[in-house]
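Interim report, section 4.2 (structural modelling).
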Amino acid sequence: MSGEFAQLVVDEAIFHLVPTRKRNDPTPAQVQLSETACTLSEDVRGKIQANFRAVLASHGRPVVEEFEAKKSTLPDRVYEYLVEQRALVDVSTDLAELLFDSQKPNSSPGLLLVASARLAGKRALLIVKLEQEGGFRAEEVLVDGKRTFDMSYFANLLMTEHNKIYKAALFCSDGVPEDGPIEGWTADKQLSGRMAQFWLRTFLGCRQKEDPKRLTQKFHEAAVDWVDKQVDDPEKSVEYLMAALVELRSNTVTLDPTSFAADHLDLTHQDSFLAYLASKGIPTTTFDKDIERVAPRLSELQIGFAGGISIIAPVRRVREDIKIVEHADGTSTVTVSGKITSTRSHYSARKPEALHSDGPAPRAELAG
Amino acid sequence: MSAVNDAFHRYQSELPDIRKAAQLTAALLRRKTARAHITCEITHRAKEIGSFVTKAYHKDYADPWNQISDKAGVRITVQHHGFLDKALEVVKGNLTLVADPQDYREREDIEGQYTLQYPRLHVQTLAAGDLRDGDGRPYECEIQIRTEATDLWARMSHRLLYKTSSTDVPRDVSRSLYRLIALVELYDLEVERGVDVLEKHPDFTRTNRLLDEAEFLYRTFTEHDHRRDLSEDVLDVLIGTLEHESDYANKLAQFTEQHRQQLEDAYREYGPTSKLFLTHGRYILASQPESLIIFERLSTAKMLLRGVWDDELPKTMLSDMAEIWSVHL
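Predicted structure of the assembly:
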């Protein structure tokens, strides 16, 4: 399927300038409000639309209004627009004032873009905070009859190709129930880590719909399950599982399954992995990571054999101390290198008959 | 004279609708022939006012408005002889015929001998779009179906044989023009044979076949020309994502139908007639038939696509398409 934002159409837009709010400023800054929607040429409209399709596809996360602990009036303004109680210009000025009030003192100044849009034909509202940035333009000129390029500097560029600094939110009439919290999506390209709280909670008055602890747990379970069911090569299985555990244990505060697949899985496995995640309701785009529920499972890796033998190894030693060789008959030889320091009996909850299975035994070598 | 004068005025006032009727009919046939995998060009026209009046006088029609049946006309010019019957079936299957087709391709002459003649294949149908004339009757449209070679001969002979309406064409000129029909037949048969052989030849690569499939489907959205060299470069990369796909042509056709509206929107906003493409040269692949394969791959095998694309083609080309299709790469 194409992304859910492929049918996002931007119709009309209005910009307001939201300045920096300074502490103890004797003449407080004021929002510079536009009085009418701007003229969007066909190419500008199309490019804005494409940019936000992309940013929502890569960074968009479902959000839901914080209904019980109301922190912002934005959901009310969005509701009024989506049910056609108020018009774009009118609602957008309220949103600009709200953003100004929501920002911490000395936040970067920026432009608030509010756009009337449609998502799969349904009325929608796109809200974007943009920051201006600098850039050069080279233009061919003739100097004394000789061709050269003149450079010009522009300090007020918006949404340049590799711009990393904007925040966007999209609300659609589909996500506006009669008597419940409104739902939508938001993306924050400014931080590589978690979403800015002033944007999500103070301004949008929302929280992430999916609990990061639960999402992280689902990712862990799905990744382990996929390796177990879809990867035949035992060496690859261990490699992929190790990569997942290391990714979860890393210090990064977000997890992007698409980047994970690209960085750690063979090309022929990547689509299968992402499709499996999607089938389990796990986003394939960036989400906040919280390993609280899975932490105990991230330090050891278990390799099980049909004959009942299991090897449990600390994740940090697997790459160095364990070698797996696969054989044509489907069995594998696992070599564990190290000094044996103890041997003891081990409690198993398995049924007694499983312990006496006549199934094919692995050829295991414990060297050291 | 008043019948011609009345018809002239009526024709003048209804000409915009007649043009529209021809245009809608051509558009319908373009989509349908593309879906039937018929390689062809489809043109349309409303008869020029001068031509209408001239014909009305020349033929001495009592009721020129009703007797001139080619007021709206569509011409289907197929690549070779083998597509004629397929094109005729498309017309019969998608438009309402007003009369039996005029099919003179193998008509015998009086003595029962086959002679050299213009292989006329005309079909009179109701025009697509349900536009109606001043009397509330649907407009008709004359559909001509020809091969490229026949079209060349017909246009040339029309100028030489029929435009000199007041003068008899010398017999030797007339004979030599009809003698060319033999070459037209020969040409058509050789083209058909060549196309058949190429399709079965192992060196006629999968890339070419894949591009043909994509072109047929793409033509159901736009008639715009594309860059063949760019298509070949991109397909050489795309083919690397299709090694394990059996019957991909069918899969692509199904994908196109499932996403037709979304694709139409994408081509309108980012395709060959968009300002982003025409003014800024962006989204270049949305003006290429292989864009259909890219959208399909982005939907079902985006990581494989990304993997084979890197280091082979500019990343912007793919990221532009991913933007349109809202896919995170």
